[in-house]
Amino acid sequence: MLFAIHALDRAGALPTRLANYDAHKAFLSDTSRFGVKIVMSGPLVSDDGQTMIGSLFLIEAPGRAEVEAFNRADPFAAAGIWEKVTITGFLRRQG
After folding, report:
1. What is the pLDDT of residue 47?
2. Which residue stretches, if any, does this entry annotate as coiled coil (predicted)?
3. Domains of the chain (ranges plus CATH)?
4. 3-28 residue pLDDT tens
5. Contacts by 52-58 with C-beta closer than 8 Å and gap 24+?
6. Which residues contact 58 (CB under 8 A, 6 or more apart)?
């Protein structure tokens, strides 16, 4: 099953995001221990097209519990970067 993780940064989180970026990338490089696969991911940006304001993931997983565990373990979550995280099931129609 596919899940979308939509995570919006708290106000003023950009310096913390940048300081934890390498740890976040390393974490994403092997998701096998959570039983999930990243189909697509990247930062959400403001209307200027550059300033990072959140994260978006499309995850393939057996169920919601695995996605929640994966998201909780992300260094960005541990650093308190995200103010609001929404995890929603997703049905692929195109692409």
Report:
1. 97
2. none
3. 2-90 (3.30.70.1060)
4. 999 999 999 999 999 999 999 999 99
5. 52/9, 52/14, 52/17, 53/8, 53/9, 54/6, 54/7, 54/8, 54/9, 54/82, 55/5, 55/7, 55/82, 56/4, 56/5, 56/6, 56/7, 57/4, 57/5, 57/7, 58/2, 58/3, 58/4, 58/90
6. 2, 3, 4, 38, 39, 40, 41, 90
Task: Tokens for 74, please give them.
Answer: 């992300």
Taking a C-beta distance cutoff of 8 angstroms, is the pair 26, 74 a contact? no
78, amino acid identity: A
